[in-house]
Amino acid sequence: KIKIRKVDDNTADRVEIIVQVSPDESSDKTIDALYAFTDCEVSIAPNACVIWDEKPHFLGVSEILRRSADHTKWLLGRELEIRLDELDGAWHAASLERIFIENKLYQLIEGCRTREEAYAAVDGGLEPFKGRLRRAVTTDDVQRLTELKFIRISRYDTEKADNEIRQIEADIEQTRFHLAHLTEYAVAYYERIRDKYGKGRERRTELREFDSIEASKVAVTNAKLYVDREEGFFGIGKSMKDAEPVCDCSDLDDVIVFTREGRYVITRISDKAFFARNIYYIGVFKRNDERTIYNVLYRDGKNGPIMMKRCAIKGITRDKEYDITKGTPKSEILYMTVNPNGEAEVLKVYFKPRPRLKRVIVDLDFSTLAIKGRQSQGNLFSRYGIHKIVLKERGTSTLGGQDIWFDEDVRRLNADGRGRLLGEFKGDDKLIVRTSKNQYYITGYDLMQHFPDDTVHVDRYLPGRVYSLCYYDREQRYYYMKRFTAELSDRMQSFLDEEGSAELVCITGCAGARLEITYKGAHAQRPADLVEVDDFVGVKSHRAKGKRLTTYEVASLRFIEPELPQEPAEASADDPAAESAGLSGEASVSAATPAAASVPTAGSASESAAAPAAGAPLEIERSADDPLLDPAQLDLF
Any idea where the domains of the chain sit in the sequence? Predict the structure, then answer.
C-alpha cells in the first residue's frame, strides 16, 4: 500500500524515525498513506461500561469526565461541610472556655460533693450567657469545662483567645464562601493539583483537528488492470496477464465497465471478474467526481435515431447495473470518451449515402452540449445511418477552473467548501504560503499536499503583486518598511532577517494602501501620520532591508487598504464623453477613478459606505423617459 525506499530509526532521548520515500512518490501522499494504513493514527471507540447507581451504563469519555468532575465537586462540598462543622465546634468550645474563665464560673464547683452537682452548678452559671452561643450547651461541653486544669485557667490570655476566635470566624466565612461558589472551588482544586504534581509532566502532544483520509486515494498503484473485451473478463490477477492492459491501479480502487450496448456497472477490483461480452470501455472510477465527463454518441434501438449526450457519473450503487442509453433493446454506443477535466472534442461524422441527403459529412462539437445527469436521454443528432466517425479536433476543458478552499483547522486544501475560499484555480495557477518564521514559498494547488505546522497564511500567488510590510529591527531599535515581489520558487525563502533580529508588525498585498503611525512616550500628543506606501519606498528584492519609518517612539502601525471608488455621478446630456462611452458602468468608473494619493481610505465613513462590494456589478438607474436612452437601449442594462 505504501511505496518507500528505507526506514531509519534515529531514536535516542527523543523519538525520531525517518521514512525515505521512493523518488517517484509524493511525500505528502505517503504521509496520508501512513495515517490510512499504519498505526500512526488509530481510531478508538472510547465507550466504556461503567457501573452507575448499581446499573451498567455505556458512556463516552466526555460523559465519564463530566460525571467524574461532578462527583469530585460533590466530595469537595462534603469536605467543606465537614470542615464548617468542625470550625463551628471549635468556635463553640473556645467561646465557652472564655466565658467560663473570664466570669470565674469555676468557683461554682467548690463545695459540690458529686460530679452531677458540679455539672448542674456550671450549667446554671452558663445560663445568662447561652444567648451569645450559636448552639445549645450539652453535657459534654459542661464536662469538658470542669476538666480544665488549674494551670490553664491561671495562665489564660484573653487577647490570645480573642484572636483565636476571630481567626476561627474568618475561616468559617471563607468556608461558607467556598460552599456558595463550589464550582470555582473545584476548578481551583484541580489547578492546585496541576501546579503541585504537573511539573515535568506537561502535554507533549498537540491538540488539533485532522482531515479525513480516504484509503483508496492514497494507496499506491501496486497493480495493473487487464481486460478481455470479447469474453467479458477483467481483473488484476495473474490469470489476466495475457489480456489487454488498461491502466495502473491499486487493489482498493473501483472500476467502471461499459458494454457496447450501453450497460455499465461499478464494482470492486478483483483478481478476475466477469461482467458481459463485448466490453467497450473500462477504467478506474472516482466516486463523487464532478469533473469527469462522459461524451457519448449512441444509436437508440436497432434502426433508431442517433443521440448525443454529455453527463457526469458521480455516485451510484456498487454492483448495480445501469444504462447510459435510453435502455431500448439493441441500442449501441457508436462513440464515447471519458474526459477527466470535462474536455469536449470535435468529431467529423460521415453518413451513409442515400437519396436527398444534402450533407454527407457533418461536424459534431460536444462543447455545444450541456452537461446533464447520467439518466438524461440526450439530444437528437441525426436520423440517418452513420458510415464512420473521425476525431477532427481534441477539445479543451469546458468546466473552467476549480474552486479551492483552505481549511485553517486541519491546514489542508479542499474542493468541498470547507474553510476560506482562495478562488478559482486552473492550469498552472499557484499558491503562496507564509509561515510564522517570516518565510514563504510558492506551490501548486494539489489537494493532497501538506503545509508546515507554522503556516499562518495561504493565498493565491500573483506574479506582479507587491507585498508591503513593516517590521521592528531589535538591533537598530527602529521601525522599517520594505516592498517586494515574491519570487517563483518552491524553496522556502526568508523575507526578514533569518537570525531573528527583525519582528514582523504588519503586512499587506493591496496596492494603494496607506500606513497609519501612532506615537507614544514623549510624542504621545503628536497626531497620527498617514504614509502613502507606494510613494514611500521602492519595490526591491525580499532580501532588502527597506527604509526607516521614523525616529519617534511608535505606539502602533496599521495598514489602511483603499476602498473601491464611489459610483460616479450621473453624466449630463451635454457630456460628449458619456455619449462616446455609451454610458457603460465600467467606462464611467474608470473615468471617475481618483489618483492614487486621493484613494478613499477605511477612515472615510461616507466614501466606504457608498463603495460597491468587490466584484459587484455597477447598477445604473434610468427612467423610460430619460433623454439619453430610448426604451430599446434599456435592455442593454
Answer: 1-41+210-216, 63-197, 217-393, 576-634
Fold of 63-197: Topoisomerase; domain 3 (1.10.268)
Query: What is the pTM assigned to this prediction?
Result: 0.61
Per-residue pLDDT tens over the stretch 366-401 = 999 999 988 899 999 999 889 999 999 988 888 878
All three cell numbers of 350, joined, read 460521415
Angle, to 10 degrees, between the axis of helix 115-126 and the axis of helix 139-146? 110
Determine how many CB atoms are found less than 10 A away from the CB of residue 303: 9
Q: How far, in Å, CA of 533 to CA of 467, rounded?
A: 10
Record the cell numbers describing residue 273, joined without a space: 471478474
Q: Which positions ≥6 away from 242 have C-beta within 8 Å?
A: none
Q: Which residues contact 354 (CB under 8 A, 6 or more apart)?
A: 384, 385
Between strands 379-382 and 306-312, the pairing is antiparallel
63-197 matches 217-393 in fold: no
* Whole-angstrom distance, CA of residue 508 vs CA of residue 533: 10
- 373 Ramachandran zone, left/alpha/beta (phi>0; psi -120 to 50): beta
Locus of grid cell 476543458 = 397
Residue 539: beta bridge partners? 483
Each residue's pLDDT tens digit, 487-498 = 998 899 999 987
pLDDT digits (tens, 9 = 90+) for 406-464: 998 888 898 888 899 999 998 889 999 999 999 999 999 988 888 988 899 999 999 98
Quick one: cell of 601?
Answer: 481610505
Q: Which CATH architecture has domain 217-393?
A: 6 Propeller (2.120)
Residue identified by cell 457519473 is 313
Q: Residue 460: which H helix or E strand, with range?
A: strand 455-460
DSSP-derived secondary structure letter, 495: S
